Amino acid sequence: MRSVALRCIGVDKSYGGAPAVQALDMSVESGTIIALVGPSGCGKTTTLRLIAGFEHPDSGAIILGGRIVAGRGINVPPEKRRVGMVFQDYALFPHLTVAQNVAFGLPRSQERAARVDEALRLVGLAGLRDRSPHELSGGEQQRVALARALAPQPEALLLDEPFSNLHAHLRAEVRAEVREILRGNGTTAVLVTHDQEEALFMGDVVAVQNGGRLEQVDTPERIFHSPNSRFVAQFMGAADFLTVGRSHGMVHLGVNPTSKAEADRSGDLEVMLRPDDLFIQPAEAGAGRIVGRSFQGATYLYTVALKSGVTVRSTMPHTERYPVGIMVSVRLNPAHPPRCFVAGRSAGDAPQALVALVRERFLEET
Q1: Whether 142 contacts 163, CB under 8 Å
Q2: Rounded distance, CA 237 to CA 80, Å?
Q3: How many angstroms separate the CA atoms of 302 and 291, rounded?
Q4: For 151-188, what is each residue's pLDDT tens digit?
Q5: What pLDDT sits at residue 267?
Q6: 60-95 confidence digits (pLDDT tens)
Q7: Residues 116 and 106: beta-carbon distance below 8 Å
Q8: How far apart are CA 206 and CA 192, in angstroms?
Q9: In 3-state terms, what secondary structure has residue 12?
Q10: Which domains are present in the chain?
């Protein structure tokens, strides 16, 4: 079992009475990349600043490498926390060479030059040590910033929207390189991003934050396929919801609510469908009509109005090009069990009885 490199326990932070981070509980195992994702203003950058030591929590504790660095009357300054930082704008010194940028902040010792060489080899820039930052591409500048953060051998690496200044193609290339560098080096990292795709790609673990609280912390696959709340479902990908009935209907259909209190609520029972859960095909007597089509390269995203009045979306291969206005059959992908929700909280995968009801009421009966 891996040791825990970073732990936040009941961390709260407010500004002028407005909560920015609330009851934050988070553990990061050594060598793990955790992607902290959420909408603007959800508290993710504040969380990063609290871990780094640029902010001090109002309550709770932060433990790095088994040492309390914040809380319980302790506030270790940033320079003594053994954390590395990679900023959005890289923060490289334009008048220093690549090697001098990486060496900045390292103590003067016989090991300094060796540390710089090791960090540059790690990020694949050993041959560019004498270049100036302006002579480098955006991706190379990013790797210099990464080498500088890794050179002191930190307990944890903190990355604040590190790829946002790169154009789309380079961003995909650089983040793949950075992920491999971090994993190959066994680096513990906390990555802050607002990009859902980036979070799913980069994180061994994904933490979804909303209103200062962590909604769900899980593997990328479970975050996407098994969201525990309506917010996570909608934030981490396109999701449509079919309202089937009231929560008491759940018990009748054999769904196991997460708690008795939840089952007793009168909230709606909803079934979540992602665009890749639905197949469509032209059919004069079909269950829906195409009302929108968006070309996305390898796929088309179709918007389909069902006879019930509900609108859903379907992702189909680019070879399946259907005109807007035609009637289509709408079928569930049998490989993806739909997720059901009560009062906005997940109640697990929908049972066969509920799936059959959805087909009968909204889609195709067979």
Answers
A1: yes
A2: 39
A3: 8
A4: 999 999 999 999 988 888 888 998 999 999 999 999 99
A5: 64
A6: 999 999 999 999 899 999 999 999 999 888 889 999
A7: yes
A8: 10
A9: strand
A10: 4-225 (3.40.50.300), 238-361 (2.40.50.140)
